[in-house]
Design a protein that fits this description.
This is NAD(P)-binding protein. This protein is an alpha/beta fold and 318 residues long. The chain contains 10 helices and 11 strands. Helix 4 runs parallel beside helix 5, helix 6 packs across helix 8 and helix 8 packs across helix 10. Bound molecules: NADP nicotinamide-adenine-dinucleotide phosphate (NAP). The site of NADP nicotinamide-adenine-dinucleotide phosphate (NAP) has 29 residues, from helix 1 and strand 5.
Length: 318
């Protein structure tokens, strides 16, 4: 069904975009990725999403049937330090891209986050139509990006071609552990081996680490599903994907310590939750329901978190 189709992935030099690009490359799509500082200009095109003319040029050169928009400023602390730059990328550039794609009948999958929800105790799991309520500016800009996509496709009368896919915290193959809020805990476990180390680790917020390769596959499956349907207008516009593996960050450190045979006595579990004076408030539990994806017949199974890490550590040791 996907033969001769073309896909464009923004943020393809990033943790998630890389795997989304691979998923399309592995199937019958001709796939192109874009990046900014890490783009080499050949396998990955350099595209500054702050520049409308550049976006238009790339879209008109690549002529994709589907664009997966993964580029964003997604570090909540960095977002707080650069609200204007973040709005420019997460909201304004998203709107420009959506307008261009809607005008050309291109399917757009906008990658969003579980942080659009407040994550208050006893609210999760959240269905895709549940009330949103971000607790920090990052979540707010991603929610505004969602609205921008849906509004532009509505305005163009192209409902069903502009989609939102919400995902939770990511892990997977990374250039550096610091690319992922989960992978980086491997470094923390190593640091805990140093004499005199004393590390405070959150043991309050519940997280559902989801593998980037699984999300890549789901993006591909969504594209094939929506491109193959004539009745798209009646299909859901907001989709959610998540693993069911649930951990606090401290519990992830425990998993890593077990896999690597390292002691984590120097890591202190912290159950206090948010510091009410901190500028970035993190949600407690934003578990995303995958019911809508399941209703479309899209496979929502995921790799097993512990199994993936066991394989990764074994491969690294070889
Ligand atoms: N990471 C998570 O745990 C997580 C959780 C939930 C949702 N998400 C969402 O998933 C998506 C991907 O996240 P990620 O972790 O893969 O992000 P990432 O690793 O930080 O990658 C960000 C990407 O955006 C590109 N980019 C940054 N500024 C740009 C600009 N002005 N113009 C064009 N491209 C620009 C970067 O290019 P260069 O690096 O080449 O400059 C990079 O490819 C985001 O939409 C994020 O909100 C992430």
């Amino acid at each position: 069904m996907s033969g001769n189709k073309s896909a464009l992935v923004t943020g393809a030099t990033g943790l998630l975009g890389r795997q989304i690009l691979r998923a399309f490359e592995r199937s019958n799509f001709t796939a192109k990725g874009t990046g900014l500082s890490r783009a080499d200009g050949h396998s990955i095109l350099k595209l500054d999403l702050g520049n409308n003319a550049e976006i238009q040029r790339v879209i008109d050169d690549v002529k994709p049937q589907v664009v997966v928009h993964s580029a964003a400023n997604r570090f909540p602390d960095k977002v707080d330090k650069d609200p204007e730059g973040t709005r420019a990328l997460n909201v304004l550039a998203t709107r420009s891209l959506a307008k261009l794609c809607a005008g050309r009948d291109i399917l757009l999958i906008y990658i969003s986050t579980d942080y659009v929800f407040s994550g208050k105790p006893r609210e999760a799991p959240y269905e895709s139509d549940a009330a949103t309520g971000p607790t920090n500016l990052y979540g707010q800009t991603k929610l505004d990006g969602e609205h921008a996509v849906l509004e532009e496709y509505d305005a163009a009368g192209k409902q069903g071609l502009g989609l939102v896919l919400r995902v939770p915290v990511l892990y997977g193959s990374a250039e550096m552990p610091s690319e992922s809020a989960v992978n980086v805990l491997m470094d923390v476990v190593w640091k805990a081996q140093e004499d005199g180390a004393k590390i405070n680790m959150d043991h309050w917020a519940l997280r559902y680490p989801t593998n980037t390769e699984d999300i890549g596959r789901v993006c591909h499956d969504i594209a094939v599903h929506y491109l193959g349907r004539d009745d798209r207008k009646s299909l859901p516009k907001i989709l959610q994907f998540s693993s069911e593996d649930r951990y606090t960050k401290y519990e992830i450190c425990q998993v890593f310590s077990e896999i690597m045979g390292l002691n984590i006595d120097r890591i202190e579990p912290n159950t206090e939750g948010n510091d009410p004076n901190a500028s970035v408030q993190r949600p407690y539990d934003c578990h995303l329901s995958t019911k809508t994806l399941k209703s479309l017949g899209i496979d929502v199974s995921t790799q097993d978190f512990i199994g993936w890490w066991r394989r990764e550590v074994r491969a690294f040791r070889k």
